[in-house]
Fold these 4 entries.
Entry 1:
Amino acid sequence: MTVAIVTDSTAYLTEDESSKLNIEVVPIPVIIDGTMYQEGVDLKRESFYERLAQAENFPTTSQPAVGDWLTLFERLKQEGYDEALVINLSSTISGAGQTVAGLASEIPDFKVHAYDSKLTVRIMGQLVLKAAEMAQQGASVAEITETLDALRETIDEYFVVDDLQNLSRGGRLSNASALVGTMLKVKPILTFDPNTNYIVPFEKVRSMKKALARTEQLFEAAITDVDYPIHAIVIYSNNETQAEKWMAELQARFPEVHFELSYFGPVIGTHLGAGSLALGWMRDPNSI
């Protein structure tokens, strides 16, 4: 059985990665002042944050159209694939995975499997890359998802946002949390709740410097006793220089960890806003 690997644009893969590993990337729409854009197609990170600052209304995100999914699956079938494993961003952020699951029996003689990554951005991207490598080696969907489940159990992440207003307006946090964050001028540290998988406030720190230092403490505590190599990712919105500086400091402090730099594209940037930074980590996918 040949397995196609599909993901959405919030995995933030490079074109070289998706091309080399035959990964299908479905763009997620972003609506800015009534105009719909496709993330990664006609709306890139470099221009998005300028548009975000100039937008008259708060941007919103949508789902890929059902017809687009069906067209993709039909094409994959015609290309000789028997199955598609679709790795989507967390179901607590988007309903795209649920939509895919509902289409599982729509294409005759072609199986569709929806996999909830329970996260997003480049951390999800690492799961997608691992899945694609395994698929190219002939692994089954069951074997791939078993590996993804094992990797997903090792993942943790903390986001430091400059302002909670975007998350509040997008419905990801309560208005009360946004109000407190604005009044006290704090830099909230957020994470995915391990039980509900919703984005929740973890701590509120009085400056970005202190918030990043606290995130480093959490990272150090989490990786101290693990018996496997760690792959970590520093993620930024429109503050690349600050992210590069932080990653250099982290690499000097934790030389045994492999770090990479990634970004919040338009879909996730819509909710986190400008000035956000994050640190995510997992077991190195190459070690499993």
Entry 2:
Amino acid sequence: MENKDLLMIPGPTPVPENVLLAQAKHPIGHRSPDFSEIIAEINENLKWLHQTQQDVLTVTASGTGAMEAGIINFLSPGDRVIVASNGKFGERWAEITDAFGLQTERITAEWGDAVDPEVIREKLEADTSKEIKAVILTHSETSTGVLNDLETINRHVKNHGEALIMVDAVTSLGAVNIPIDEWGLDVVGSGSQKGYMVPPGLGFIAVSEKAWKAYETAKIPKFYFDLGAYRKSTAKNSTPFTPPINLMYGLQTALQMMRNEGLENIFARHERNTLATRAAMEALGLPLFAPNNAASRAVTAVAPTTVEAEKVRSVMKKQFNIALAGGQNQLKGKIFRIGHLGFISERDVLTVVGSLEATLRELGHETMTPGAGVAAAARIFAES
């Protein structure tokens, strides 16, 4: 049957019908008073979502663009930075800092493990001359399904005193609690196609006053991504360049939906979907790639041993029209990833688990009890 696709990857994520319909409206002038009112509402709701009193800046870019903007606006060539890397996206930020001539020190962990906050603490405490200018990390490492301990790492950065903390929250913002002002996070980047429930194309950067002070002396060249220009425009409910007007319509609607649901309910829903998915995989005899104490709320990575990961994805797509994500880089063909981020409900999770059971049976995975996965997921939903 056509048009029955179910997108269960960590991005792009499913888009609510209300958001799609909002985007179908005729565009209006981006310098008009009417559009300025839309921007004002969006800006207020972005501050609510980010739990900050600072303006959240919106750029026309992916999450990678938002993170690059966050890095280049507050640092200078030759600055010493720490990049925590335990997956594809941690590695990407190190590649970006290398590209802009920063002195990059990588703190790594095995893919599938969380970054050890103690290693970062030791590195920061050893920096008695306060040469380290930033610590950059991915909160939810999408490639492996690992959630790093941002709160503890941030505490160590704050004890250092000089360094900024720059956070890739692309798949954690809108899925887990990130109280930006309470924790004093300096630069937080995210993207529309994840927890925001909007198609790709918008990036968001929250910036602290401490980071803005660093901006005054930062020397990396920039133009389109000069966040100072975005700050001035945002204060006037405008944009420095032409925005994707129809995506902004969608963002306006999505943020209204999120505000109606409430932050605590959003976080609880992602927690339930994560626990249910992981319980189902364990009940089906499928090894989880990330440990329970560091499980992403956006995506669950599964490392099957009795069936091929790519065959699982192929059957799920061809027979059930369900898209799962594959492994990246050295994990290609070794894992599959189930996204449960954004506009994903309990029904979606149960549908995926039931379809996966049928897929596993077709592929010869015998070490499971029929219905065990669905029962395990349903039990989590019933108890929470």
Entry 3:
Amino acid sequence: MKRRDFNRSLLLAPAAPLLAGTTLSAVPQSAQAGRKIPWQNWSGHQKATPAGRVSPKTEDELASLLKTAKQTIRPVGAGHSFSPLVPTEGAILSTRHFDQVEAIADNRAIVGAGVKLNRLGEPLHKLGQALPNMPDIDEQSVAGAFSTGTHGTGANFGAMHAYVEALRLVTPRGEVLECSRDSNPDIFDAARVSLGSLGVITQYTLRNETPYKLKRRTWMQPLEQTFAEFHQLAEKHRNFEMYYIPHSDNALIITTDLTDEAISPRGEDGDNDAVRELKMLRDYASWWPWLRKKLITGVSNTIPPEEHVDWWWNIYPSDRAVRFNEMEYHLPRESIVGALKKVRDTVEKLNPDVFFPIEVRVVQEDDAWLSPFYKRPSASLA
């Protein structure tokens, strides 16, 4: 546990694949030729051997493909969803050719559905813009992240889809719809978090901010203290999250706030080493729960606080080399401390195998119909 930065497990929102319940008529010969190519999601838990793979280059090509469909087609982003959104015996569709990033007036930008989050930060920054918030995994495609409700953390910040001002949707009938609060508003409210069920989104118009620097602080503190201070920390800091370290008495706290200080980069993440070491302690001390708890708590007490300053897109995400599967619950914010206490009690008493840190974040309400944060300030427990 040399790490001072325990794993920030993923997002819900993990957001990668979109699900489209449409069908595809003729998979192009290039997709049919040769053997079928297996597909799996990032964690390896969801798998499929689709009949073909398609990657349309234009909206017209995509519209024709969907309109003449006769077998199942499902769009796929970067494969970061833990749910079975993509597996099919039909075809999977990539939106990788929809990759534009274009600044427009009033701190807005047009972003293609296939752009990955980790290839969006620096281009936006060079255009004089910044995303208001980001998740802690940046491997997802834009459309995958938005359509599955992916979120970061911050009491005054919504999930990624909350900053969408407009989108273009190609329906199963081959129609291309412009959707916003003023144009096709019901479809706009449904499509922002739709799992791809309405068709294939090709681009978004995003409401952004001017570029900013963040100071990221991490420190360990007693879990009971964290329960008592949870809501104050969430209100005090621009971004706040915590990690309960299973079978210990401590929590890891991470906050970020705006700053004008000089850059001091984070450097290489040690989260992956920390997770491996937690697993090792579980395996070695499985017969002595009291010893395991004493060791983890004792070592975590020696971890010093850290501070780093950098531009926004370098602060939010973390490296994730350790593969995992995640489930996430979204609760009314006022209920989160009580829920976490019950999770802690259940883990401590009934689940000695659990070693992966449990992540808690806060998210502002929004009005997308299938959003986990629909009209309710929420907290997410992953």
Entry 4:
Amino acid sequence: MFDLYYWPTPNGHKITLFLEEAGLDYTIKPVDIGKGDQFTADYLSISPNNKMPALVDHAPADGGAPQTVFESGAILLYLAEKTGQFLPTGPRARVEVLEWLFWQVAGLGPMLGQNHHFNQYAPEKIPYAQDRYTNETRRLYGVLDKRLDGRDFIAGGAYSIADMAAYPWIVPHAKQKMDLADFPNVQRWFDAITARPATAKAYALGPQVNPDLGQPLTEEQRRHMFGQPAR
């Protein structure tokens, strides 16, 4: 039913988490961002921001042509609405999930992404940038830790797309210079999601799709991932 244009990054993992939890049929279409697959004309017709992931639904609700969806948060919302899963129907509970979904896509992801870049990938170490994004990462972890005080999941008692959005960005916490022991509520939540069978299935896809996962980037990969100007 679904084609998932995917590479094993935090944003890619968000969608495989949903698809595995919901037990949906999908086909992986690898988008090798280190080779520049995200800039091909075919992919840009689906994802005009040249980012990954993207989704194609071959059986949309209106029965028409396949529906394309880009941006990971939009994909999670689309899948939740289509399947009726991982998004409450009650208006207040729904708003709560959407608040934290948007918190992730607007803050947690971008800030932690900059942390990764300046602490791991930047060819020149810039202490101000490293401190700036490490400190902002710590602040956001603190926000999440406070939110999870007395709650099993971000939006309350039920696992939701808000959790699926945030979890993959916490997985590389050590590379972000974060110690989960400093955030006990985040640690408890993180361990609970890690233990879910669907999480293991989603993350097992990473090395299958990219056998070089975790290896240092080549100069070609850096050029495609970090050096593309406007076209």
